[in-house]
Design goal:
The structure holds 2 protein chains of 2 kinds. Chain A is an alpha/beta fold. Chain A is built from 16 helices and 16 strands. Chain A has helices at about 40-45, 50-55, 95-115, 155-170, 180, 190-195, 205-220, 235-250, 265, 270-290, 305-310, 320-335, 380-385, 390-400, 415-420, 430-440; strands spanning about 10, 20-25, 30-35, 65, 75-80, 120, 130, 135, 145, 295, 315-320, 340-345, 370-375, 400-410, 445-450, 455-465. In chain A, the strands form 4 sheets. In chain A, strands 12-11-10-13-14-16-15 form a 7-stranded mixed beta sheet, sandwiched between helices. Chain A has a 5-stranded antiparallel beta sheet with strand order 1-2-3-5-4, with no helix packed on it. Chain A has a two-stranded antiparallel ribbon with strand order 6-9. By secondary structure, chain B is an all-alpha fold. Chain B is built from 5 helices and no strands. The longest helix of chain B is centred in the middle third of the chain and has 34 residues, at about 35-65. Classes of the chains: A alpha/beta, B mainly alpha.
Chain lengths: ~475, ~130
């Protein structure tokens, strides 16, 4: 038998909490080791038909048994190879409806599990990923045998990871979803309770699941009551609890609009002709680049991302505006678009690596590099709104993508003039010559075309080897 | 690098100890007692809410009888239930809530003052089923 050190590639940092098993990578392939302590539950997952039902309904990621050495030999039961998720995203990068759909999927999974004699032992939002545009549970080891009378251990986690941020986003401010970036195990219920408006106390869902829940946790925090002494909860009562949670989540609404970028394409300064020309050029450049994986940075509502999708690429469309991401996601759902993942990402304060040793959840750039980046109508915001010097902009894109499709917007453009109205023009290097000179250090300029009749120019660049 | 190998080996030992430790606890994530207790309270409250709604038609009938309109029927009550979207499953919860409420009270030594407040809130807000916010 091989020494375990010899066959190790790497342990996947985000999967250490559950003793039932963990993820590891070997020779670039992702595996999940199932430990012996989980054997009974794993067998029940399969025998009860739960695995089949959930995978066939697209609610659980599929896997196959892998005939490979385990990562840690002692205590190992088996190794499985899960279907690979193309792009890992985190709850603080999701728009309101993405988090809502993920919450409802979790509850649906729990209800189906109960009907098959199992239940979810955790309800972490990080266990949900968007695959083919829909929320899917990726942790095969999240199930355990249901024991009649036992309360739902993951109830508090569900409220912290899903309900509390959704309530805050819908009833207080959409930006409060970003609290999840600070609280890796979900928004503390006492914090959510103190932030929610008083009116939320007159609604059953937030009253019970947030306010009373927070109060109850606080009340019994210091009292030494063993969990075994807590009275049981029948299966029907547990179903009632799930129905109540589902009802609370379903009732939450957030209407996108009125933000800086939500109506961007209604207010752009170029003509229909220029807009159509821009779409044509983007399509041509994407075709030439042979893009299969695309990040559309500052992609607004995904208008240009969809061109890449039409050409067969998997696209992650990032924008800082929650309304744009929401609109984009709702369109994906309405049109059943599978290869587009809209995400809320602030390029000027991107998702950091967080958690234990700052490795548990990856930063957005650790999830790259990517084959192709679209950076349309973005450079003036990077340089003029955020004072990033041109050499840093060029090196940033060079570190991120093999192929770059970028739009240069000159100072004479009305959008740039708008940015300069309220500030001194200190941007001497913001011109086409400087742009070409700095980007040429890292990229070969493969093609360029003016977006007629505007003053903008599109470039297709390939990173130098 | 020998130092790096040693570090990796130590890291793996610790990892193996953590990952293979005996599982004696009821869940690997912490669940606060208060969170476990409130679940039963909520489930009971939902049951009570359903019960109130279920009998709302009958209560209305009582009042309408008092005003002399004796024409109120069982069918009318059923229409109310239907209009409020009660299905078989939630209707069953009514009985469940009664027994659950009893089981929650004093003998376990855990007070549940929340129950009383929940009832008040439920009747004032229309409860959990059928009311759109």
């Amino acid at each position: 038998m091989k020494n375990r050190l010899e066959c190790i590639d790497s342990f996947v940092a985000g999967s250490f909490r559950d003793p039932s098993g963990f993820l590891f990578k070997r020779d670039g392939v992702l595996y999940r080791q199932v430990n012996r302590c989980y054997r009974e539950d794993y067998e029940l997952l399969v025998k009860s038909g739960l695995y089949k039902e959930l995978t066939s309904r697209g609610l659980l990621i599929g896997h196959s048994r892998a005939d490979v050495e385990p990562f840690v030999t002692d205590g190992s039961y088996m190794v499985i190879e899960p279907v690979v998720v193309p792009f890992i995203s985190y709850p603080y990068e999701w728009c309101f409806s993405q988090l809502k759909d993920a919450a409802l999927a979790t509850l649906e999974i729990q209800k189906i599990a109960l009907s098959r004699g199992m239940c979810l032992k955790d309800a972490s939002a990080y266990n949900i990923q968007f695959v083919d545009g829909r929320p899917v549970l990726i942790d095969t080891l999240s199930f355990e045998k249901y024991r009649e009378g036992r309360p739902w251990i993951a109830y508090s986690q569900f409220c912290r990871h899903f309900l509390a941020p959704l309530e805050l986003m819908a009833r207080k401010d959409i930006r409060l979803g970003l609290l999840l970036k600070n609280f890796i195990d979900g928004v503390p219920l006492d914090l959510a309770s103190s932030l929610l408006p008083v009116s939320s106390r007159f609604r059953f869902g937030p009253l019970m699941h947030i306010h009373m829940h927070a109060r109850s946790e606080r009340k019994y925090e210091k009292e030494e009551i063993a969990h075994e002494d807590v009275k049981g909860l029948s299966r029907k009562s547990l179903v009632a609890l799930l129905e109540s949670l589902g009802s609370a989540v379903r009732k939450l609404r957030w209407k996108p609009g009125g933000t800086e970028w939500a109506e961007y394409y209604d207010e752009i300064n170029y003509t229909d002709e220029a807009f159509e020309n821009k779409k044509r050029i983007v399509k041509e450049f994407l075709s030439r680049s042979g893009a299969r994986e695309v990040w559309d940075i500052g992609g607004n509502d995904g208008t240009f991302s969809r061109i890449a999708v039409e050409l067969g690429a998997d696209v992650v469309c990032m924008d800082v505006d929650p309304a744009c991401v929401e609109k984009n996601y709702l369109r994906c759902i309405a049109d059943n678009e599978k290869n587009l993942t809209p995400l809320l990402v602030d390029l000027f304060n991107p998702s950091p690596s967080i958690g234990w040793e700052a490795t548990e959840r990856m930063s957005i750039f650790e999830r790259g590099p990517v084959q192709t980046v679209l950076a349309l109508a973005l450079i003036h915001h990077i340089m003029i709104s955020n004072n990033v010097p041109m050499p840093m902009v060029a090196s940033f894109f060079a570190g991120l993508a093999e192929t770059l499709i970028i739009e240069f917007v000159p100072k004479s453009d009305s959008q740039v003039r708008k940015l300069l109205v309220t500030r001194e023009d200190i941007f001497n290097d913001y011109n086409l010559d400087c742009f070409l000179s700095e980007f040429s250090r890292f990229f070969e300029i493969e093609a360029r075309e003016d977006v007629m009749p505007s003053e903008r120019t599109m470039f297709l660049m390939r990173r130098k080897l | 690098m020998p130092g790096k190998d040693r570090f990796q080996e130590n890291e793996l030992r610790v990892l193996a100890q953590v990952l293979l430790m005996p599982v004696l606890f009821i869940g690997y994530i912490g669940a606060q007692t208060g969170s476990l207790i409130i679940q039963a309270v909520i489930a009971a409250s939902v049951g009570i809410a359903v019960g109130v709604r279920l009998y709302w038609g009958k209560i209305k009938m009582l009042f309408s009888r008092g005003k002399g309109s004796k024409g109120a029927t069982v069918e009318e009550a059923e229409t109310v239930e239907d209009a409020e979207g009660l299905d078989d499953e939630t209707m069953m919860l009514e009985e469940e809530a009664d027994s659950l409420e009893e089981s929650l009270l004093p003998d376990s030594g855990i007070e549940t003052p929340e129950l009383e407040r929940c009832d008040t809130e439920l009747t004032s807000t229309g409860g959990e089923t059928g009311i759109e916010e």
